[in-house]
Design goal:
2 domains, alpha/beta, HAD-SF_hydro_IA, 5 strands, Rossmann fold, 53% helix, five-stranded parallel beta sheet, 207 residues, 11% strand, Putative hydrolase of the HAD superfamily
């Protein structure tokens, strides 16, 4: 059995639905799902470009806002509203939180590895006591590295003091799962807590 479990945050531990967020925050520009998806592509660009640099901790919010305004064609004020709305949109996923409770009670060591800008990480830590379930974690914005770069996985394993072969990693992005597997972790593409728990039980990786 694997006793060490590393969790991504967005869409794994916390809800992350950027299309829904855009429809809520910028309804004039995201009046339907298709318009919101197109706008999300211009803004996030697969978490590369400006948002990728924000995740890496190499730009601050003012520079991000200006860059997103250029990418999106919208105003800086609108992009500031979007950035300000993100932390509240990252709501805990109840099924995952309940599973974390069970895993911790069963004696598993829990860690996190998240592509998360430092300002958002600060707010999550301040707002959510259940993050105390995690023994340790790495936020990309605090180490200037981000998934799927192998370097951030190596840094996390070293910081946590665990071996790749004894560890399961959960993430909703295939590229991150592939990167983890290349380093010897058992990685699971996360869709929801029930699916992930069932997959691990079927493979005899957790009790």
């Amino acid at each position: 059995m694997k006793k060490h479990l590393i969790f991504d945050f967005g869409a794994v531990v916390f809800r992350w639905q950027p299309v829904d967020l855009l429809r809520e925050v910028l309804p004039a520009h995201a009046s339907d799902a298709d318009a919101a998806r197109a706008l999300a592509e211009r803004i996030f660009k697969g978490y590369t470009d400006a948002w990728g640099r924000f995740d890496h901790g190499t730009i601050e919010v003012p520079e991000l806002v200006e860059a997103l305004a250029v990418q999106s064609g919208l105003s800086a004020a609108e992009m500031q509203r979007l950035v300000d709305a993100v932390p509240a949109a990252l709501e805990p996923l109840p099924d995952t939180v309940a599973w974390l409770d069970r895993l911790r009670a069963a004696g598993h060591r829990l860690f996190y590895l998240s592509n998360m800008p430092a300002p958002f990480a600060d707010q999550l830590e301040a707002r959510h006591a259940f993050l105390g379930h995690f023994e340790s974690g790495v936020f990309s914005g605090r180490v200037q590295l981000a998934k799927p770069d192998a370097a951030i996985f190596r840094l996390a394993l070293e910081r946590f003091g665990i071996a790749a072969e004894d560890t399961v990693f959960f993430d909703d992005h295939p590229a991150n799962v592939d990167a983890a597997r290349a380093l010897g972790l058992h990685a699971v593409l996360f869709q929801n807590a029930a699916q992930a728990e069932a997959d691990l039980r079927a493979e005899g990786l957790v009790g």
